[in-house]
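Before a colleague's protein record goes any further, I have to sign it off. I want your independent view on whether this chain really folds as the tokens say. The record follows directly below this note.
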Amino acid sequence: MVYSIPTMEDDEVISRLRALADPDAVAGMARFGINPQRALGVSVPKLRRLAKEIGRDQDTADSLWAGGLHEARILATMVAEPEAVDESLIEEWAAAFDSWDLCDQTVMNLIEKTSFAWEKAAVWSDAEPEFKKRAGFALMARLAVSDKASPDERFLAFLPLIARGAADERNYVKKSVSWALRQIGKRSRALHEAALAVAGELAASNSSPTAWVGKDAWRESASETVRRRLKH
């Protein structure tokens, strides 16, 4: 893969981020479950435009992440080189997840593109930290969308992990568990039937978080819109 040459030095990138800061947006971040500490309030579309200017550059990504600013870390995931990062670095970054958006952006922008995405999805689904565990299920959801080549069997192997993860009562974990189950169920007719069966079993559970995941996944998976799409 060819990466573009960076057009900005690290200090200029930080200066650009600070120029885009929106204090009003920062004030509202906590309402959406995002840690406002060390945040600037820069929207994701603006970060993507800036990332396009910078190009892929791992040194810049490392520097942006090390600085600790919330949006700088999201930007780091956009300019990082998937082929250059190793598992040690990804484990270090995952240990620092402190909000759902940083977790999800790192998964979508970087981790799902690495050679070890499938492994991390399985391993992190049993992690203890809330956002690292969320990352495991977010990876499952993203792989169901982006990995067009993998057979259904690889996704079927995720279903027992999803059933186990559904018992976690933490909000950002259970939402990601439902997300994973729903996305796997949209991938093929066979996976749709398997995901519906799991959702039905979870919905009948006496465990409140487990039942919530099952019902949430069932509502979308059993919809006519999904069924019609899978017929074509």
About this structure: Residues 1-7 have pLDDT under 50 and may be disordered. The chain has two domains: 1-92, 116-232.
